[in-house]
């Protein structure tokens, strides 16, 4: 089941990004802190009152610089209407109601989506009285907030989560592998879907998915049941979507959350751009089994080293996904497509691996014996016990004497030893360090 989406909408300089950062706090995925990722803060995740959600900062959506402000704001609002379950409409108490605010309000009023009106920069009680003007926008009681002083954020989130749609659990058989094809526009997602289904000729049905516009297509091959989640099937409203590659991130995240395996589609003819890294990073964050599928390989001019060189380029750009296999294909000629589903089956299984506790401890004990942890301020990390606590992805807790002594490089060393001992190809591993003080 996909998380609900909140979008923050408003004209420039009303403080959208400040509120966005307040809401996500330190919950934003940390892939951007690792080499190989350049993801921005357009999309984040958080929770309130036990309800998890994703949140869009439309201020991070860059419209062409030659667009006027009203047109830019209107486009951002339209994006939010398409993607969000709840919209936070932000205005500035000190500026009052502006023409741009009225433009957005007219769009949102017709959207038939819950709209929470947030009046920002209410830094004192005197300004509180100025919020009443905003009743005129037609969205009920304004919520006074201050991003710079963190005032009213709780009230804002409470109103937002109370407006979420009712949760509807998806009913999918356990033996079904759900595959999301993700990637920026024009990488060939639709062509790949058609090629996979056309080759197998076993399509059962094509029905509207349970999550907005996504098209779910069940099929079966060699006794294994699959569901293709095709984000490429979603509608577009005008040329704005062709110009905003960041829009594909919004589509991709919803598909990733519902999937077991993410196929990161890359256009082999055009090569890698930053948006490919953004989208792949979300699959990594979500802990999904993943692989790179380089499409349109038939039109790439090649010599005997082209594939090797392109493979290294992918590894260099996606250092944090070194575990993900890659396959060079052509949806047009069906080149190597027969290898795709076997790899999907394999990495889906790896994502569900559960290792016995005593075997895990043997592997980690040997690793520590071979390379003992370095000392820090005269103290040495001691690994006491290791256990796996979850699958999808494999999640392992390492109990130590003091988790502050676990350096990132040594954690990476332990992960590499685990990968050498067990076949985790295609899946991230999550390692958490805990010490006795965590349970006190």
Structure description:
The chain has 13 helices and 18 strands. The chain has 440 residues and is of the alpha/beta class. The chain has three domains: 5-161, Rossmann fold (3-Layer(aba) Sandwich), CATH 3.40.50.300; 176-349, 3-Layer(aba) Sandwich (Rossmann fold); 357-439, GMP Synthetase, Chain A, domain 3 (2-Layer Sandwich), CATH 3.30.300.20. Helix 2 (69-83) packs parallel to helix 3, helix 8 (247-258) runs parallel beside helix 9 (274-285) and helix 12 crosses helix 13 (408-421). The longest helix has 15 residues, at 69-83.
CATH topology of the largest domain: Rossmann fold
Number of helices: 13
Strand residues, percent: 15-25%
Strand segment tally: 18
Determine and state the CATH class of the largest domain.
Answer: Alpha Beta
Q: List segments where confidence is low: pLDDT < 50 over at least 5 consecutive residues.
A: 26-41, 199-213, 233-245
Largest sheet: 7 strands, mixed
Strand order of the largest sheet: 8-9-10-7-11-12-13
Per CATH, the architecture of the largest domain is 3-Layer(aba) Sandwich
Radius of gyration from the alpha-carbon trace, in angstroms: 24 Å
Query: Shape, please?
Result: globular
Multimeric organization: single chain
Mean pLDDT: 82
- Coarse structural class: alpha/beta
Share of residues in helices: 25-40%
């Amino acid at each position: 089941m996909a998380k609900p989406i909140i979008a923050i909408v408003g004209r420039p300089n009303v403080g959208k990004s400040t509120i966005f950062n307040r809401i996500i706090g330190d919950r934003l995925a940390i892939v951007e802190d690792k080499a190989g990722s350049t993801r921005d803060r357009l999309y984040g995740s958080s929770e309130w009152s036990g309800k998890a959600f994703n949140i869009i900062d439309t201020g991070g959506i860059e419209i062409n610089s030659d667009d006027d402000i009203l047109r830019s704001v209107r486009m951002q609002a339209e994006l939010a209407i398409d993607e969000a379950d709840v919209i936070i409409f932000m205005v500035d108490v000190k500026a009052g109601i502006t023409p741009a605010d009225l433009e957005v309000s007219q769009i949102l009023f017709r959207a038939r989506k819950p709209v929470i009106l947030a009046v920002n920069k209410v830094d004192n009680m005197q300004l509180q009285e100025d919020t009443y003007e905003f009743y005129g926008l037609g969205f009920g009681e304004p919520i006074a907030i201050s991003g710079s002083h963190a005032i009213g954020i709780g009230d804002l989130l409470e109103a937002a989560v109370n407006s979420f749609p009712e949760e509807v659990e998806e009913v999918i058989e356990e033996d079904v592998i759900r595959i999301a094809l993700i990637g920026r526009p024009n990488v060939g997602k639709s062509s790949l879907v058609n090629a996979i289904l056309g080759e197998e000729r076993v399509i059962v049905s094509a029905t509207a998915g349970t999550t907005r516009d996504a098209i779910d297509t069940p099929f079966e091959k060699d006794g294994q049941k699959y569901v293709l989640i095709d984000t490429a099937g979603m509608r577009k409203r005008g040329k704005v979507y062709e110009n905003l590659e960041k829009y594909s991130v919004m589509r991709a995240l919803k598909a990733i959350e519902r999937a077991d395996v993410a196929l990161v589609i890359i256009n082999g003819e055009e090569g890698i751009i930053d948006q490919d890294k953004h989208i792949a990073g979300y699959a990594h964050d979500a802990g999904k089994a993943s692989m790179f599928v380089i499409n349109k390989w038939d039109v790439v001019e090649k010599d005997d080293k082209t594939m090797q060189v392109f493979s290294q380029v992918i590894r260099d750009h996606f250092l944090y996904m070194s575990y993900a296999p890659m396959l060079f294909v052509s949806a047009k000629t069906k080149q190597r497509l027969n290898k795709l589903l076997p790899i999907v089956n394999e990495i889906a299984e790896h994502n569900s691996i559960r290792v016995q506790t005593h075997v895990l401890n043997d592997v980690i004990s040997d690793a520590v014996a071979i390379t003992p942890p370095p000392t820090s301020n005269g103290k040495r990390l001691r690994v006491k016990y290791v256990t796996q606590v979850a699958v999808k992805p494999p999640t392992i807790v390492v109990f130590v004497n003091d988790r502050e002594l676990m350096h990132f490089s040594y954690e990476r060393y332990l992960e590499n030893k685990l990968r050498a001992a067990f076949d985790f190809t295609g899946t991230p591993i999550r390692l958490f360090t805990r010490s006795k003080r965590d349970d006190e």
